[in-house]
Amino acid sequence: MYLKSIFISLFTLFFLTGCGVSDTPLSLVSHKTTISTDEINEAFSKVFPIQKKSSFGTIAFKRALLKPTSKGNKVALSVAFGLTSFEIPEGIEGTLTLLAGLRYDPRSKKIYLKEVTPVGARFGDTSLARYISKGARSALNVIAMRELSDIEIYQVKESFSARFIKNIAVSKGKIVIHYGL
């Protein structure tokens, strides 16, 4: 029994040491992989369009593109939207620019946006944009922040190493998943 426990301990030590040295996905001590923005945008596009009614009108978030940025651990979002209201019944198109972090839910193995913050809004038809009140403009940002924070942007493939994801970072224009014990 004593020799059996020594053997198991040595085997475990050598296995973990070997995994830490290797560069394969079985490396549980430290490993990282990257996800391309094309993969994320493809998964992200399946969520849209999203339509939301509010007190000032109806907002249709038509599509969104996610891009890595050089601003810390954030990603940039460009969200195309359409807004119809009592003042503009025919609607107005525009683009919201937002910054967000990434969070990983280990139970569902999904990546979500977190801490979505508005950067700016641009309306396609500037002659109609003057009819949009300041309250409606700020509410547009708040609704976008709330709706996009709950959206799944990527499903991590089911694998043994998915249990050991430590964090998700944005580095050098790529989204990096860090694994480890």
Walkthrough of the structure:
It is built from 4 helices and 9 strands. By secondary structure, it is of the alpha+beta class. It has a single domain, classed as Bactericidal permeability-increasing protein, domain 1 (Super Roll), CATH 3.15.10. The strands form 2 sheets. It has a 6-stranded antiparallel beta sheet, sandwiched between helices. Strands 1-9-8 form a 3-stranded antiparallel beta sheet. β4 and β5 form a beta hairpin. It is elongated, with a radius of gyration of 22 Å. The protein starts with a helix and ends with a strand. About 6% of the residues have low confidence.
**How many E strands?**
9
Give the overall pLDDT as a whole number.
78
CATH superfamily name?
Answer: Uncharacterised protein PF07273 family, DUF1439
State the strand order across the main sheet: 2-3-4-5-6-7
Helix content: 25-40%
SSE arrangement, N to C: HEHEEEEEHHEEE
- Judging from the principal axes of the Cα atoms, what is the shape? elongated
Q: Give the DSSP E fraction (strand runs of 2 or more residues).
A: 35-45%
Structural class: alpha+beta
Q: Give the distance, in angstroms, between the N- and C-terminal Cα atoms.
A: 28 Å
Q: What's the total helix number?
A: 4
- Count of discrete domains: 1
As a whole number of angstroms, the C-alpha radius of gyration is 22 Å
Biggest pleated-sheet summary: 6 strands, antiparallel
The name CATH uses for the topology is: Bactericidal permeability-increasing protein, domain 1
